[in-house]
Write a structure and sequence with these properties.
mainly alpha; 69% helix; globular; disordered N terminus
C-alpha cells in the first residue's frame, strides 16, 4: 500500500525533532502559565475607572470571583495536561498504541498489518476514547462545581452522560469515513496529494456546514420558531431594511444546559436563519437584541464569514503542503519510536512539528477576528443601534472578564474585551 512513496526523497533533513518538540512543549507551557498568572493577578484588583457607573461593584466582584475560580482550576488542568502530554512522548505511548491497534485488529477483525487504513482508524478510535475518558473528571468539575457554584449549570448528570455518548457516537460516525477517505486520497493523489486533500476537506467542511444545523444540532437542542409578536416583527423589519434574506427565526433551548447566552445566524445564499438562545431573551430587552443582531448582520454584509473560511482554507493547504515534505522522512518516524512510516502516524507526528506555526497562525487569526468584531460593532452603530448597554448586560449576566490583562487578552481572546469595545465605539 502507498507504493508511490518509493523513490521519493524527504525534504526533511536530520534534525533532533523529538527533542525540539519536547523543548517547545516546555516553552509553551511556561509562557502560557505566565500569561495565566498575569490574568489571575488581575482578578484581585478593583474595578477599572472606566467601568464605574456602568457596572456595579457587586456584579464586578462576582465576575472577578468566577474568573479566579476558572483560572485556579485552569492551573491544575494545564499542569496535568502538560505532564500527561510529556509522558505520552517520553514513554513512547504512541508507538505502543500503534502496536496495540494491530493486535486488536488481528484478534477481532482477523486483519494483518497490510490493512494500514483500518489500523489507522482503530488507532484513532482508541486515542479518542482514551482522551475522552481522561477529560471526564475535568469536565465534571467544571460543570458541576464551578458552573454550578455561580449559577450557570442547568445540566443534570443524566444529560451530561447522554451528551458524552452522543458526542462519542458522532465522532465515530463522522471520523471513521472521513479519515478512511482522507488516507485513500493521499494514496491516490501521489506526490501532489496535498492539493487533492485540500479540495476533499474543503468539500467535507462545506457539507457539514450545510447539515449541522439541520441534522447534528437538533440531536442536542430543541429549535422552536420565535413566537409572533413585537420582537419577531422588529427582527423582520431590521433584516428587510438591510436586505438580509431571512427565512426563519428560531429560539434554542440553551437553558437546558447553561445560563450563558448567545445568538447566531446560518444558511447559504437566500436561505438565512437566525437563532436566539432562550437565555438571551431573558437577559436583554428587545432593543438590545436588535443591536446584537445588527452586529451579527455586520459580519454578514462585511463578508467576515467568507473571509474567515478563505483564510482557514489557505491554512489547510499550507498545512498539507508542508506535511507532504515530511511524509517520507524516516528521521521523523524513528525519532518518535516508530519503525515503519504509516501515513496517519506521519500526520499525527507532523501536527506536533507544526505546533509553532499553529500557535503563530492562531495569534494572527485572533488579531483578524478582533478587527472583524470592531467592524461589526461599527456596522451596528451605523444602523443607529447602541451596543453599549446590551454588551455590558451580556458581560454582567455571563460574568465575563471585565479586567483582562492586555498580554493575556491579546494571546487568547478572539474578541475584544468589553472595555476595548466601549472605547472603540466612543471614537
Amino acid at each position: 500500500i502507498f507504493g508511490w512513496r518509493e523513490g521519493r526523497t524527504s525534504a526533511v533533513t536530520m534534525l533532533p525533532l523529538f527533542e525540539l518538540i519536547v523543548v517547545y512543549s516546555v516553552v509553551i507551557y511556561v509562557w502560557e502559565t505566565y500569561l495565566d498568572y498575569r490574568q489571575y493577578v488581575k482578578y484581585s484588583q478593583p474595578i477599572p475607572a472606566e467601568l464605574k457607573g456602568i457596572v456595579n461593584e457587586d456584579d464586578f466582584r462576582k465576575a472577578q470571583q468566577y474568573g479566579a475560580a476558572k483560572s485556579t482550576f485552569g492551573f491544575f488542568q494545564g499542569a496535568f495536561e502538560f505532564v500527561h502530554g510529556l509522558a505520552i512522548l517520553l514513554l513512547g505511548v504512541l508507538p505502543w498504541l500503534w502496536d496495540v491497534s494491530l493486535d486488536l485488529m488481528e484478534s477481532v477483525l482477523g486483519l494483518g498489518a497490510e490493512y494500514e487504513v483500518t489500523r489507522s482508524v482503530v488507532f484513532l478510535m482508541l486515542a479518542e476514547a482514551y482522551s475522552m475518558l481522561i477529560h471526564i473528571p475535568f469536565d465534571l468539575y467544571s460543570t458541576f462545581v464551578i458552573e454550578e457554584r455561580f449559577g450557570f449549570n442547568k445540566q443534570t448528570l443524566g444529560l451530561f452522560v447522554m451528551d458524552l455518548l452522543k458526542g462519542a457516537a458522532l465522532s465515530a460516525v463522522i471520523g471513521i469515513p472521513v479519515v478512511s477517505l482522507l488516507l485513500h486520497v493521499i494514496e491516490w493523489g501521489g506526490p501532489y496529494f496535498y492539493f487533492y486533500v485540500w479540495i476533499f476537506l474543503a468539500l467535507v467542511t462545506l457539507f457539514f456546514m450545510m447539515i449541522y444545523p439541520h441534522v447534528i444540532a437538533p440531536l442536542f437542542n430543541k429549535f422552536d420558531p420565535l413566537e409572533e409578536g413585537p420582537l419577531k416583527e422588529s427582527i423582520t423589519a431590521l433584516t428587510a431594511k438591510v436586505s438580509f434574506p431571512l427565512t426563519k427565526v428560531f429560539v434554542i433551548d440553551g437553558s437546558k444546559r447553561s445560563a450563558h447566552s448567545n445568538a447566531y445566524f446560518y444558511g447559504f445564499f437566500k436561505n438565512k436563519r437566525i437563532v436566539l438562545y432562550d437565555t438571551l431573551l431573558k437577559q436583554v430587552d428587545q432593543e438590545g437584541i436588535l443591536a446584537i443582531l445588527a452586529h451579527e448582520l455586520g459580519h454578514y454584509f462585511l463578508n467576515h464569514t467568507i473571509l474567515n473560511l478563505c483564510v482557514v482554507q489557505v491554512q489547510s493547504l499550507l498545512f498539507f503542503f508542508l506535511f507532504s515534505l515530511t511524509l517520507h522522512s524516516q528521521d521523523m518516524y524513528r525519532s518518535f519510536g516508530f519503525q515503519t512510516e504509516p501515513t496517519f502516524i506521519g500526520l499525527v507526528l507532523f501536527s506536533f512539528i507544526y505546533g509553532p506555526f499553529s500557535h503563530g497562525l492562531s495569534y494572527l487569526m485572533n488579531v483578524l477576528s478582533r478587527h472583524f468584531e470592531y467592524a461589526a460593532d461599527a456596522f451596528a452603530v451605523g444602523l443607529g443601534y447602541s451596543l453599549r448597554e446590551p454588551l455590558t448586560k451580556i458581560h454582567v449576566e455571563n460574568l465575563g472578564n471585565m479586567n483582562p490583562d492586555p498580554w493575556y487578552s491579546a494571546y487568547h481572546f478572539s474578541h475584544p474585551t468589553l472595555l476595548e469595545r466601549l472605547r472603540a465605539m466612543e471614537h
